Known about the structure:
- By secondary structure, the protein is of the alpha/beta class.
- Helix content is 45%, strand content 15%.
- It has a single domain (4-244), classed as NAD(P)-binding Rossmann-like Domain (Rossmann fold, 3-Layer(aba) Sandwich), CATH 3.40.50.720.
- Helix 1 (13-24) crosses helix 9 and helix 3 (64-78) packs parallel to helix 4.
Amino acid sequence: MSKVILITGASRGIGAETARLAAERGYSLCLNYRNNRQSAEDLCASLSGDGHHAITWRADISVEADVMAMYEAIDREFGRLDGLVNNAGILERQSDVVDMSRERWQRILDINVIGSFLCARESIKRMSTLNGGQGGSIVNLSSRAADLGAAHEYVDYAASKGAIDAMTIGLAKEVGDQGIRINAVKPGLIYTDIHADSGEAGRVDRLKTGVPMQRGGLPGEVAEAILWLLSDAASYTTGSFIDVSGGR
């Protein structure tokens, strides 16, 4: 049977491109989404039509019961799990910290940090050789914002990705002897719909002159890095980060 990976936030952007590339490379897929049902189902239908094994599952990853139900569905459908792409994340409108509410911070942390933790935990339970699993790979989606800070835009988002960086390092050390590798990809300015969520759909074009390569990146370029970290080609790579940011 082909290897099975879960991609959270798979209905658009980097998640969707990762799903397409993973399917081309022979993976079976669980495509998680929260709100964009039609996009997720259209993607799944396209992949299935090309002969790939894929299912969709709606889950708010910040809700533990949703996460548990999703993993139970993976157990039923596939009977195994070999990889997780912790891609789901949210961004709020651009703002200075002094104007941010506690509720906003809570929403960001619930999805971007707690949700990623819950999915990592359940994946480790299934992949760990200590539990009878066959090992596997987790790729977390961080961001260059964790290093740059995103001042006057979304320091809360940057902070949540800093937490992802710490979790990546800690988990890599914790489960390295259980056959599981934990790494992260740190995209920079990438052409995805998430910028519209922040209130500036054209943000990449506004800032691209500050990128050494003088352009924004494409979701497929991020997906290539993710798929490499998932694959056996990265078999001795854990606790590591790949910046996909054009040098920014």
